[in-house]
Design a protein that fits this description.
This protein has ten helices and eight strands. It is an alpha/beta fold. α4 links the parallel β3 and β4. Keywords: Hydrolase.
Length: 290
């Protein structure tokens, strides 16, 4: 996480939170939680709109949380109507349409592509969302649209995929992780450090998550599920110049989880990796392998 990838409003809020964090840790935790459950508004380019117009779009109604049956509308996209079905999961603040080059490559190879706007993103319902909700929604989408041959996730979407396949009653033959986040606790600790928020806030934040989401933050960490992802084969692509998903952390993770195949590139960063030719070819080879 770096300042240049954060909106100005969030950086300014960080300064306020830093000042109030030590005397008012509870209030700081509540404001911080609200900010980080509110994804940034995304803008679509003309090429993305064109890709969206080529999709069959539908609305799927799911429940909001495992403990809350409030209906939530999820906008789904489908390209192609035959062949093995691939599910694409975008990252925080992202869109399925950011997978444009990958969607084109998959269709050319005879796959059917399915995706959806995550809660509080694009045309789906909600104003705020979080990883607990993302996992619950993904589980429902996978059960509704089964079977999938592969799930491909980028960044926060990749973390969502790995945790859902580890913790929920779903499985898939192939899993592709691109520039994956590895740990929600590490993410929050890094954010607190970045904004110079006093460490006394972290316990308050953990308690807030347990109360509101009925989950322990420490459980949302891929390191806790080594060899536990329910995918027959896993492939991970990452970049040494990525400032959001650090290559050193991913290197350490891969040493612990040697069954994961990987491709390490340099020069594309966190977002351009999604359209890198070597990465696209690596994904296609992985998906077509026996």
């Amino acid at each position: 996480m770096q300042h240049q990838v954060l909106p100005l409003s969030l950086r300014m809020a960080g300064k306020v939170l830093s000042a109030m964090s030590r005397p008012f840790p509870g209030a700081t935790a509540r404001i911080f939680y609200r900010l980080y459950c509110t994804p940034p508004a995304g803008k679509l380019r003309s090429t993305h709109v064109e890709l969206r117009n080529q999709a069959v779009m539908q609305s799927l109604q799911v429940s909001s949380y495992p403990f809350d049956n409030t209906p939530l509308k999820v906008k789904t996209y489908r390209w192609g109507s035959t062949g093995p079905k691939i599910l694409l999961l975008h990252g925080w603040g992202g869109s399925p349409l950011h997978f444009k080059q990958l969607i084109t490559a998959l269709l050319q190879q005879g796959y059917q592509v399915v995706s959806y706007d995550a809660p509080a993103h694009g045309l789906s319902g909600g104003k705020r969302t979080n990883l607990v909700q993302w996992m619950h929604v993904l589980e429902q989408v996978m059960q509704e649209e089964a079977p999938f041959y592969a799930v491909i996730g980028h960044s926060f979407g990749a973390l969502n995929a790995a945790l859902t396949l580890s913790r929920k009653n779903v499985a898939v033959p192939r899993l592709v992780l691109l520039s994956t986040a590895l740990s929600a606790p590490v993410f929050f600790n890094e954010a607190l450090r970045l904004f110079r928020i006093h460490p006394v806030v972290m316990p308050k934040l953990q308690q807030l998550i347990r109360t509101r989401l009925r989950e322990d933050l420490s459980d949302m960490d891929m390191h806790r599920y080594i060899n536990g992802i329910k995918a027959e084969k896993i492939w991970l692509g990452y970049d040494t110049t990525d400032t959001l998903a650090l290559a050193t952390e991913i290197d350490d993770y891969l040493q612990q989880y040697p069954a994961i195949q990987s491709l390490r590139i340099t020069g594309e960063g966190h977002f351009r990796i999604m359209r890198d030719t070597k990465v696209l070819n690596g994904i296609m080879t992985f998906l077509s392998a026996p």
